[in-house]
Structure formats: structure tokens, C-alpha cells
Amino acid sequence: MRAVFVFFDSLNRRSLECYGGMSVKTPNFKRLAERCVTFDTHYVGSLPCMPARREIMTGRLNFLHRSWGPVEPFDNAFPDLLAKAGVYSHLITDHQHYWEDGGATYHTRYDSCEFVRGQESDFWKGVVEPNLDGFKEKYHPSQVNTQKRNKFFRNLVNREFMKDYEDYPTVRCFDEAVDFLDTNKRADDWILQLEVFDPHEPFDVPAKFREDYPTDYDGPILDWPKYDRVSETPDEIAEIQANYAATLAHCDLQLGRLLDYFDENDLWKDTALILSTDHGYLLGEHDWWAKLIMPCYNEVCHTPLFVHHPDYISQAGTRRSALTQTIDLMPTILDMFGVELPKEVEGHSLLPLLEKDTPVREAGLYGVFGSAINITDGKYTYFRYPEDMHGGDLFQYTLMPTHIMSLFSVDELQEASLAAPFDFTKGVPLLKVPSTPKSPQYSRHGPGVQHDTTSVLFDLEVDPGQTKPINDPATEQRLCRLMVQIMLAHDAPPESYRRYGLEDFKAEAKS
Description:
The chain is an alpha/beta fold.
């Protein structure tokens, strides 16, 4: 068995033609759908980047116990499990977060790894005295920062070293993928994880990809929206959206290169192919840019998934409606290689769905640590916020105390205690660290940056855009009961039931 797992970042389901999108030309995603089983009700689990990747590693939700962080010592990482079964794993990525404090221990799980440098805030090229005046002239003021450890600053420096088409990280990632396939296409028992940061912001691609997406904007480069309310002029809004479209079109072209390789070498007959993303992206919908600080709308959380397996070639071009999630990717990969699932895994293998569209779960939880707990059953979405976002009862449980780009501070750790093991930590106790305004996470991905924190219920069948909350106490209570069932299955921290006002539902579930 061989497999290629392609993972884009911030890939908008609604922008793809095979999911009904009309604003971006994505012929190769359509071509992929013709070769795969396409999943129509696929949702995220934990947000954003690294929490999603921990779920891919382990088949469990991350956001109930901690925010952004590394693979933990007790985690069941799928590359390690594959290695024990004699399956070789190789990672190709330009995702710079793997090389930050909060992304440690991921890439080292694979047998080998190729890291393509230069994306976003990668601390790549060393330029002590860059042309700051040139940056201010070239780029919109919203994305210029002269502090040398700032992500905007590092990105401006990196871009100076991407002059030609061949320099762009996404191109180089797919180049490396072709090299890997050339080297190993006659070998057996391997998985290639091809992971690219695009179409994540900044939406920077060669100019030719903008030709199909003209705007009336006449100003400096504007391709990195802030995580904030939409406040730009109509021309600026159009420019940002066009730059996302161009970046997605570039991703589509690169995907076409991989599909060409599968066609030319007849890999469809003996190589599986999975394609998905960690989350989507708000491009002005609900009057928001980006993700994280606002409610978990479907533009971010309802994501694309495509699966091809040689044993199910007859199902190519078909679609599935069953509710699936990010945590299902790990057990699906293990199942492809005949590797037994650890008992801690809460996701489900999707291979049975390739044969028949049967439900694997009644509902799924998703969210950002410290914000709402969200649930969907495919028909409804319900966002449940604490009555008091800053009322406490919020702790990070970890043996790897790092934030996205820093270690936990001494001030944070001075308030830590030792917590009893959870049912998935293999008897290992954890640090229990209060999540308070002392924590960088609190005001970056946590309660300190959350907006619109009112619990709401949406009926997706009549309101797919989630613009008209409904009042339906019976449905809300049903979803709360399902929410608690899933939290219990994941051994959620006991205080989380108090934080979200779910104690009565928990008592009912245990009675």
C-alpha cells in the first residue's frame, strides 16, 4: 500500500467549483473530485493550525484540553505507529509553524522531512538593515511593521528573495513531491504527506495568476487582511478577495501537476490519495476577515475532503453526506495500511464510507480553546459560549508547555499544579496551568480576543449562510446532550462543564 496525503491551509470549501463555487477557476479540484469520493459534510475539530494537526496525528480533539501546542509524550502519532508496522513516512512542507516553539515534535515523528523555507513569518533570511522605506512604499500600511521579530516584518524580508516563479514555496513543495514520487514510485509501504501553507494569508502569488481576477484597486500591495472586522473600502475589499482567488488558482495549478503525475504513472491503481485542509477562511462574510476571534462560522469550519483508494475505484466521482471530521483522518490512514487503532482514538476510519454512505457519528464538536464549544449534526450548528468568558474555570493541560512562538512564562507556571491523568494520557499526570490574561495565548487565541460571544443556534437547511439565529429550545437541549456525550468520550476537564453551563446535562448523562 502507498498513499499521498495532500494538506492545504485555509482552503475554502465554498470557493471550489466542485463544491458549487463560482468565483475562482479550480478545474483541477473538479478533476480530483472525478477521481475521488467527495465528502459533503466534513467539519474541522480544533482550530487553528497546530491544534488541527495534533488531531491529524492522534485522532482526538485537541481544543477541550489545551490550545496551540506540540505533540505530547502520551500521544499516538500516526507516523510512529506506521513505522512500527514497517511503513515509511515522508513529510514535505513549507508550514513554518512546525519550526516554532508551539509546533515542535511534529515533523520529527516522520521518517524524513523536507522543509521549504520562506512562507509567511518564517525566520528565514538574515537581513540586518533592510530597505524599510522601500517596504513602506511597496506595501499597504496595514501590513508593514519595522519590529524585527514581528511576523509582518519577517514576511517582507522573505519576499525579497522570491523573485521568480520557481522561488515560490508552493511550487517548490510540489517540485519536492515529484522528486519523491520519482524516487519511490516502485517501492511499497510508504506515505507522503505533502503539506503547503497556501492559500493561507498573505495571498502572495506570481502576478500572472491575478490576470483572471482584476479589480479597480490602485495602491500598494494589499494581500494580508487583519484578523478583524471588515473596515476597508470596497476597492480594498475586492483586492484582498482577488488575491485570495489568485492564490487558490495557483494551488489548483500545482494540484494539477500531481494529478498529471498520477495519470502518467498510473498511480491510481495502487496509490491512495487524500486531500483536505485544516480550516477555511472568512473573506468578508459576516463582516469579518480570517478566523479565530469570531464565532466558528461554516466558512471556516465546514471544509473539503476528497479520498481515493485503489480498492474503491468504482466509487470515483461519487459523494458522501455522512458527517465526518478532522479526527477521522488519522484512523483512515492507519486503516489503509492495516494498522490497529489505539484505544485512545475517537475518530473513525472512513474506508467503510467509500463503499457505502453510512453515518459514523450523530454529531461533531469543534472550536477554539477557551471560546465556544460548537456542535453540528449536519442539519444544525450550535455555538455555546460561557455566560462569563472571563470567569475562569479554564486551564491548559500539558506536559509540553509552549505557546505558538514562546515557552509558557514563569508567571504562568508559578500557578500550575499537577492534575490526575486523563483516560488518554496512559496513566501520566499533567501540568494544569490556569489560562488567564498572564498567558500570551489568552489575548492571541483565547478569551481575550473573542467577539460576538452569544450562544446561537442555526438551521443550516433553511439558513446555510448562518445569518438568522433561531429560537428552538428542544433542539438546543438535544444538542447540549450530544455535546456532553462527546465531551465525556474525550474525557473533557471536569471544570469545563461548569464553564459552559452543562452540569445538569452531565448529571443526566451519568444517571
